[in-house]
């Protein structure tokens, strides 16, 4: 038997870092949603007790470091599953980009293996398992739009944002989330981000208020280390995107665009100097 799952990319509409906790994690408040740029997982049953990962992407680990592998091993251990699985990852989401590609693959593996092995694990339990794999995994299990608190695993589902075009641009650098948090100094008094404004703008489906209230406290850290992120932001703004922000710990920058007529201008303008540019829709 075979099952397929889509693993969409997430973007942050806000990311506020509140403080560093005693356990080393940062307490955050962020609004996250998904876009229709997705990896695709094909999961086939293996009679042997093994987990095999393959992918056309040469630049991700295919061993126990792969988050889909870790998801499979976690489910196998917890539910004493004797069968093995062969997982093929068709990667479309750029890696180490701030788009939670690995987390979404892990979440898709949890959902898919739950079906493949007919385990009937409730969604909340899949999310608890996901939290053991990474802070963004619980959100990726359900997708939608959520306010995430704690280290990202405490979720409050909210309405989806108003539909619009999303232009994603990734400069040719890979950024480690741990490294960005390591450089972040919560005491430095960066501009606080108001997730409340973002949430209210979504409740009232006010696109322009959403664009002006988005903010990401990690942006200064990544921009400080990689000036190309600032350049991309400025270019997107100049080309007419309505709201522009870096996603997660970066380096991907996204622009929200309400009018189809403007999307081609933003895309073509960016393509002049950035190789990885995508035009997608919010997943609503
Ligand atoms: P986040 O925003 O959750 O920090 P990200 O988009 O910045 O995620 P990922 O694409 O998830 O970053 O990759 C982070 C690291 O995880 C990479 O260095 C990669 O080698 C490793 N990794 C493990 N499994 C996967 C996977 N299935 N897909 C992509 N990267 C993976």
Molecular structure report:
- The protein has 284 residues and is α+β, with helices and mostly antiparallel strands.
- The chain folds into 2 domains: 2-158, Ribosomal Protein S5, domain 2 (2-Layer Sandwich), CATH 3.30.230.10; 165-281, Alpha-Beta Plaits (2-Layer Sandwich).
- Helices cover 35% and strands 30% of the residues.
- It has helices at 67-78, 101-116, 123-133, 137-142, 177-183, 195-203, 207-213, 219-225, 227-238, 260-271; strands at 2-20, 26-46, 51-55, 84-90, 145-149, 154-158, 165-170, 215-216, 243-246, 253-257, 276-281.
- Strands 1, 2, 3, 4, 5, 6 and 8 form a 7-stranded mixed β-sheet that branches. Strands 9-10-7-11 form a 4-stranded antiparallel β-sheet.
- The longest helix is centred in the middle third of the chain and has 16 residues, at 101-116.
- The protein is globular.
- Adenosine-5'-triphosphate binds next to helix 1 and helix 2.
- The site of adenosine-5'-triphosphate (ATP) has 21 residues, from helix 1 and helix 2.
